[in-house]
Amino acid sequence: MSHENQAKNQPLGGNTMPRFAGPGTMMRLPAAASPVGLDAAFIGVPLDIGASNRAGARFGPRQIRAESALLRPYNMATGAAPFDALQVADLGDVPINTYNIDKSVAIISAFYDTVLAANCKPLTMGGDHTIALPILRALARRHGPVALVHVDAHADVNDEMFGEPIAHGTPFRRAVEEGLLIADKVWQIGLRGTGYAADDFDWPRRQGFTIVPAHEVWFQSLAPLMAQVRAAIGATTPVYISFDIDGLDPAFAGGTGTPEIGGLTVPQGLEIIRGCRGLNVVGADLVEVSPPYDPSGNTALLGANLLYEMLCVLPGVPVR
Ligand code: MN
Ligand code: MN
User: Fold this and answer.
1) From ligand 1's centre to the CA of 319, what distance in Å?
2) How many domains are contained in the chain?
3) How far, in Å, from the CA of 1 to the mean position of ligand 1?
4) Any idea which ligand is nearest the CA of 264?
5) Distance, CA 153 to ligand 2 centroid (Å)?
6) Measured in angstroms, how far is the CA atom of residue 126 from the centroid of ligand 2?
7) Which of 3, 28, 125, 180 has the greatest number of CB atoms lying within 10 Å of its CB?
8) Is residue 272 in some structural domain?
9) Which ligand is nearest to the CA of 260?
């Protein structure tokens, strides 16, 4: 890695400071003001003015950080030891303009340009799914078009919402139009629910996307699917993971804005992320956690764990 000679930041341990106390950063990592010197960073994007139904994802980063206080550094299932090799910190929140979505999108993409210029991989806590568009814009400027593993109940390829081109249901339409994606290396996993028309999923299929509706993978391991994804993407193509928490069933992740029944399970979500190991993952996001609809904190706890799992599959993370 580019920063291999530095001492590595570690999450503050529960035997040093009680887990209910200490810093409010992701995993109680050091806060950083600059991405320079970091291999990866957690970043909050507290935007929810793109939401069509229940808002509240603006509180997602803060609540995900709060629930992340329980996370320990080693991945007991996969053996991944991210903090042994990567320099990781919490870069705080992007100062979006909560009165203006267009200005917010510009602020976000400029912020990510700076992060990527430092060779730092962004792990983003949303925020609603609108934020994937400005992140993909910055990624494409840095890497060219990227492959995409997109977990969601929704395809998010609407042409417009209430006449608006930028909202949480449109980012992947805009991304295709702008050439930000390698369209035949896009997987949308977990799609379901009621639609406006029978052909709602035809547009992404025509672009070359692979659609994996939730009901087609009920009761199944997704490890074989992810083997297909890895074979198709290959080890060098830049790939982005965009994980809408509503891809999982509301039984597990009800604290979200647009829940749909019959969703993926938590183990399936873990299989998807863990199945990205070996890919050239250049960034990832976890979006649509809405704390006002998450009174137990379980959805935010799930989000925190999924972000940790994303960190664990970044290139350069050793397995012990
Ligand atoms: Mn979405
Ligand atoms: Mn969704």
Assistant:
1) 31
2) 1
3) 32
4) 2
5) 5
6) 12
7) 125
8) yes
9) 2
Between the alpha carbon of residue 196 and those of residues 193, 201, 286, the distances in Å are: 10, 10, 26
Closest listed ligand to the CA of 129 = 1
Ligand 1 midpoint to CA 155 (Å): 7
1 is a domain residue? no
Residue 218 resides in a domain:
yes
Q: Which ligand is closest to the CA of 154, given by its number?
A: 2
Starting from the CA of residue 168, give the closest ligand. 1
Residue 10 · residue 83 · CB < 8 Å: yes
pLDDT in tens, the chain (320 residues): 456 667 999 999 999 999 999 999 999 999 999 999 999 999 999 999 999 999 999 999 999 999 999 999 999 999 999 999 999 999 999 999 999 999 999 999 999 999 999 999 999 999 999 999 999 999 999 999 999 999 999 999 999 999 999 999 999 999 999 999 999 999 999 999 999 999 989 999 999 999 999 999 999 999 999 999 999 999 999 999 999 999 999 999 999 999 999 999 999 999 999 999 999 999 999 999 999 999 999 999 999 999 999 999 999 999 99
What's the rounded Cα separation, in Å, for the pair 247 and 20?
Answer: 29
Q: Give the Å distance between the CA of 233 and the centre of ligand 2.
A: 24
Flag whether 93 is in a domain.
yes
The CATH number assigned to the domain holding 100 equals 3.40.800.10
Which strand ranges, in their side-by-side order, compose the sheet holding 88-93?
A: 88-93, 40-45, 121-126, 280-287, 238-244, 146-151, 181-191, 210-213
- What does pTM read for this prediction? 0.98
Closest alpha carbon to 133 in 155, 154, 101, 109: 109
Q: Which ligand sits closest to the CA of 130?
A: 1
Residue with tokens 């930028």: 166
